[in-house]
Amino acid sequence: MRTTSRKLIFGLLTAAFACLGVAAASAADPPDGMKLYVFSSGPLTIDKSALQTGATGKIKVPVAFFLIHHPKGNVMFDTGNNDKIITDSTYWGPNAAMLTPDSTTPDVSTITQLDKAGFKPADVKYVVLGHMHLDHAGNAARFPDSTLVYQRDEIVNALWPKPGFAGAYIPGDILPLRSDVGAPMPNKQKVIELNGDLDLFGDGSIFIKRQVGHTPGSEMMVVRLPKTGIVILTSDECYLMDNLKQNVLPSVGLAYDPSGILQGYEWIKQRMDAEGADVIFAHDPEVYKQHKHAPEFYD
User: Fold this and answer.
1) What distance in Å separates the CA atoms of residue 178 and residue 173, rounded to the nearest whole number?
2) What is the CATH number of the domain that holds 237?
3) Please, what sign has the CA dihedral across residues 166, 190, 67, 233?
4) What's the number of domains the chain is made of?
5) Residue 107 contacts residue 73 (beta carbons within 8 Å)
6) Contact, 135 vs 80, CB < 8 A?
7) Rounded to the nearest 5 degrees, what angle is found at the Cα of 247, between the Cα atoms of 246 and 252?
8) What pLDDT, in 10s, does the model give residues 170-220?
9) What angle is formed at CA 133 by the lines to CA 127 and CA 139, rounded to 5 degrees?
10) What is the pLDDT of residues 97-142, one digit of tens each?
11) Domain containing 147: what range?
């Protein structure tokens, strides 16, 4: 199911504003009652050089995902690791050895984490995917009643990746999103396929920014909260605060478009300088520790 013409218009307008360096076109203050919850679906241990070129040693990182409670509907950003790896790490194939998931108890399940904050999959109106790697879209199929929001380039790449960039996509995560054989539409559930930016509710409170860099269809999210202000959720467009401050790229296998990643860094820094934006990365352990975790929230 394609996005409505109204949403397309909003997307084109907000893309124009983004080109001028404005995060989103906001005609009103964020609505009262908005809340941002920060979760993790269990840590991974990985060579730091994968996330930061030139680094040495290992780093244990969170796998952050987020839920925004909004008066017009709850929105998830990313869905964490597929819950299957809790009992069967071989689901990830050789990735399991490279990432060493510390996810052997049901407590790290995305569904269990949501429940701690009082939410169930049926409560989620939109699932926005920063990209479709194994630790960001792993549980996308666990939200069949939600509308998926992603870049068209990303789902194409997830199903048939560019040479050299296939390893982090798990077909079993993506194929359940496909409709049954013979169906006229490819998507099993409602989707909004993007080729650009989108002001999700048309009020500037949740803004999706396309930023090709880490993958062909990566996107970030800007959340404008009534009290906290602006929070940028980077997914993997930036891994660590040091990467952002020093313009350090990840390894070549995690940088589909290096110049696009650097452009994303500059966009984030502009928002930090001009608007005092907070930034929460998906995998920065120190930044993750510094923030509240669900069931606590930002409002």
Assistant:
1) 10
2) 3.60.15.10
3) positive
4) 1
5) no
6) yes
7) 130
8) 999 999 999 999 999 999 999 999 999 999 999 999 999 999 999 999 999
9) 45
10) 888 887 667 888 999 999 999 999 999 999 999 999 999 999 999 9
11) 5-289
